[in-house]
Amino acid sequence: MRIGVPKEVLEGERRVAVVPRMVEQLREDSHEVHIERDAGKGSFFLNSEYEKAGALLAPHAKDLYTDVEMILKIHPPTKCEVEMMNPRSTYIGFLFAASRREIIRYMKEKSITSFAMECIPRLARTQSMDALSSMASIAGYRAVLMAANHLGKFFPLLMTAAGTIPPAKVLILGAGVAGLQAIATARRLGAHVEAFDTRPAVREQVESLGAHFVEMEPVKDAETASGYAKEMTEEFLKKEREVIGNRITLNDVVITTAQVFGGKAPILITEEMVKTMKRGSVIVDLAAEQGGNCELSEVGKTIVKYDIVICGEANLQSTLPVDASSMYSKNIVTFFRHLHPTKDSSFDFEDEITKSTCITHDGKIKNEVVEKAFEKELNAHD
Length: 382
Known about the structure:
There is one protein chain. The chain has 382 residues and is of the alpha/beta class. It has two domains: 2-128 and 321-381, 3-Layer(aba) Sandwich (Rossmann fold), CATH 3.40.50.720; 138-314, Rossmann fold, CATH 3.40.50. It has 13 helices and 17 strands. The protein starts with a strand and ends with a helix.
């Protein structure tokens, strides 16, 4: 199969979907790999490294898309990129299809088969494909460093000639992959850490990292069958905010990680809650791109409101391009090899992973969630 790896077009993106090491693996499976010139430049992977690994360099994106039948990418394609794709070709990468209906409709019209990396179910056998978890771990790590950079205090306990300086207090909202990485990083920096999550089952993981687990009334069915968080009722969110409100006044840093698969992030910190925080405190909102866990967050910006620093920076994964590219590359190539276990194999739509991740195929929408989103849009127009 002829596989293409284009340069990411999102402004500021430094990652690349496939690194030279994984090109070698694809070549061993008898696939032909084409990569757009300088696609790996932002991640410090040189064109010469790709050529040494056996990849063919395409001078321009148009040349790349024309020559291949499979595209491996990170960010959802733009309309221009879909236009360059060959009819009946295949796309693998993030799609977030429910919110990009125009792009999905266009891919359907061109009979492009598409697979969404964010839809990979969380199973024991999919861990090496789970790009959401890989990228979330990077975001959790970066969030703590960002908070430390903005906080006007030391993170660790210090014994100095000027007296004892107490450690910073950090509250992590959400103990998923990003939250657990944030806990571990903040603890390494010497902070006092506590974490809040609606799932009692994560208590053991939180405490194993040396953090205090903040209690709340247990919630049934807080996760989907695929292991992602469900959207909660407004009544539940009100109770949740009460618990959080009692804790944020005691902490110097709050890192929020709560996101809902396929939906808007829940508001966990209201403007009134921000006003109660200690002056100079820092909020890092990892859900800013999904609407934000903090009511005041602005996507892609760090702002100061009521003397509180609120970081809504987007795409933190791109700030660690070398490791982020290597991790994502392992995820996407492993997934590709699952879809194509042999050189000439076809897609097995009876397989749980293949079925869950396919968005469009043969001119049809295959994913139930996306199909319902399209139906909802049509009903709204009627």
